[in-house]
Amino acid sequence: MTIPQNQRFLLVKAQQAILSPKHTQGPAQVLIDQSTGKVVEIAIDNKQCTTIVDQNALEVIELDNDQLLMPGLVDAHVHLNEPGRTEWEGFETGTKAAAAGGITTVVDMPLNAIPPTTTVGNFDIKLNAAKGQCHVDVGFWGGVVPDNANELPALIGKGVRGFKCFLIESGVDEFPCVNETEVRLAMDKLVNSDSVLLFHAEMDGCGKPKVEEENIDNRTYASFLNSRPQELETTAIDMIIRLTQEYHEQGRSVNTHIVHLSAASAIPAIRAAKATGAPLTVETCFHYLNFTSEAIEDGATHYKCCPPIREASNREKLWEALLEGTIDYVVSDHSPCTAQLKKQDTGDFGQAWGGIASVQFGLPVLWSEGRKRGVSLQQIANWLSLAPAKRTKLDHKKGEIRVGNDGDLVIWRPESAFEINVADVHFKNKLSPYIGETLFGAVDRTIVRGTTVYNHKTAGLFAQEPFGRPLLQ
């Protein structure tokens, strides 16, 4: 095939490539039309791309033998906090950090920005704030709060990927939690659609006696962990499963999704619900698969998140559920804040903001822990690319390297160990429990729709102009 002379192309040559979770690792060439951002040809098994391209219009990237080519990552749970809380994070810094981590698509959560993404008008404000700032492509979750059910169809029409709600107070006044009646009102608007309702699955009403305030030492991680028992999650998840199955059995299916699963005690109920064919998916987070409560020191508030990091035995059960498919994929839940809000001066877990900053480090964290457990690189590609692309309705163009898809790629070195230093952190507030960790899997280059947006070998690291787009289709 001959191509018109005015087009430009990127040809990536790799001795080691994983094009999708379905493909074995091996040599591949990928040709991307930079004018459309689409993959136009793939050659495997030492074959050559045959499209005839003017060499003056061709950029070639040839990987070293220790580098691996994989689909760009999709992080489906990121708080970019803009507009309204840009001292916490913002589109520019958050998407730069994502690019440095091999992520080519993030999906922004509806809360912690002001206003939240709960109405069409608010969504327009967010889209305007994002213009010209994003270094990777960005999708958006809408939000479900009391009294906004009638907004949901119009938000779907505007391009949100689905909707998130809280079953317990969110921590910000502008995004209140919902009760079962309000959940049903939202579900009624989503019946038999391809949208999805996401749940922060913690809920009061577990019947656990409250610890007397005078017995709490808020500097101890144990006190914080005891304040968010597994029953908060299982109570919420039992309700989510009940409603999902009820609507499904009535022929009024609504896709539901549990975000940031932490409590392993919920896994049997989730497994059983999925076995019935209920349209339920589940994510967990890098920090739940990496850290353990036993290793968290008192006052180390940068480990605080909700639901909390739990015991080592709980971590292993989460890994088992991920490996067997009960948990579908893994996300960062990047939820940064300022040092003042983290209460690092007092070490007060009770007062500190709950959230872990990590969007830049998901790939090496998951691979470093996964390789200890015999995880394959194909599984990594599924959990970090294809499965989240499917859940966010982006798998028609994201999540795997195939002809017609966006040319989103990550080039990384699975066997390269590195230490995370503060100077290498690209999100706004350099507060993260991962700083000082030594991990395997250094990211060398990130490519969005055929254009390099991060290259660790260049002085500036990032593309001079933000290249990301909003994902509204």
From TrEMBL:
Its EC number is 3.5.2.5. Residues 69-453 form the Amidohydrolase-related domain. Pathway: Nitrogen metabolism; (S)-allantoin degradation; allantoate from (S)-allantoin: step 1/1. It catalyses: (S)-allantoin + H2O = allantoate + H(+). The keyword NAD does not apply. The keyword Transmembrane does not apply. GO terms for cellular component: cytoplasm. GO terms for biological process: allantoin catabolic process; purine nucleobase catabolic process. Belongs to the metallo-dependent hydrolases superfamily. Allantoinase family. This is allantoinase. It comes from Mucor saturninus.
